[in-house]
């Protein structure tokens, strides 16, 4: 079997792109009512969450300022879990918070791993693939 670790940067890049893409959809739901969502008031906690999700998701998806955007997004997801889900039931599967927990930890991983391949952070650093992005 081939050594799959040689594809680590590309796999990290794909994970980042997909997670950012899915995350920005949550922001679009809140801010624009797209994808079956309902708009929220911009000057509210949900409005702030929508901005973080839309802008942060876009930055993460394109790999620009990845570490900073992922840190903020991870913190928002931790906050959202304890504000909206934890009081409903003990386990994430019971309180509908499993996607929140998963986003939180994927973004926390990106804080440490960087952007991976296919990122603007990598292009800014003059590399095609980089694990140590901003």
The class by helix and strand makeup works out as mainly alpha
Outline, from the CA principal axes?
Answer: globular
Order of strands, main sheet, comes to 1-2
What is the count of structural domains? 1
Unreliable segments of 5+ consecutive residues: 128-134
Number of DSSP E strands: 2
Radius of gyration: 16 Å
Largest sheet: 2 strands, antiparallel
Mean pLDDT over all positions:
93
- Helical content band: 55-70%
Write the layout of secondary structure elements.
Blueprint: H1 8-32, H2 45-62, H3 66-85, H4 92-95, H5 98-113, E1 116-117, H6 120-124, E2 129-130
Report on this model:
This protein is an all-alpha fold and 134 residues long. It has one domain. It is built from 6 helices and 2 strands, in the order αααααβαβ. It has a two-stranded antiparallel ribbon with strand order 1-2. Helix 2 (45-62) runs antiparallel to helix 3 and helix 3 (66-85) packs antiparallel against helix 5. The termini are far apart.
Features:
134 residues, globular, disordered C terminus, single chain, mainly alpha
Provide a brief overview of the structure.
This protein is mostly helical and 134 residues long. The chain has helices spanning 8-32, 45-62, 66-85, 92-95, 98-113, 120-124, and strands at residues 116-117, 129-130.
């Amino acid at each position: 079997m081939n050594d799959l670790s040689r594809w680590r940067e590309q796999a990290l890049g794909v994970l980042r792109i997909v997670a950012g893409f899915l995350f920005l959809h949550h922001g679009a739901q809140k801010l624009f009512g797209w994808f079956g969502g309902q708009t929220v008031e911009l000057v509210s906690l949900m409005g702030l969450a929508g901005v973080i999700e839309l802008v942060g998701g876009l930055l993460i998806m394109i790999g620009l300022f990845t570490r900073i955007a992922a840190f903020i997004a991870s913190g928002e997801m931790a906050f959202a879990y304890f504000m909206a889900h934890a009081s409903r039931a003990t386990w994430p599967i019971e309180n509908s918070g499993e996607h929140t927990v998963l986003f939180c930890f994927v973004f926390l991983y990106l804080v440490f791993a960087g952007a991976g391949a296919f990122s603007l952070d990598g292009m800014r650093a003059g590399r095609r693939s980089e694990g140590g992005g901003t």
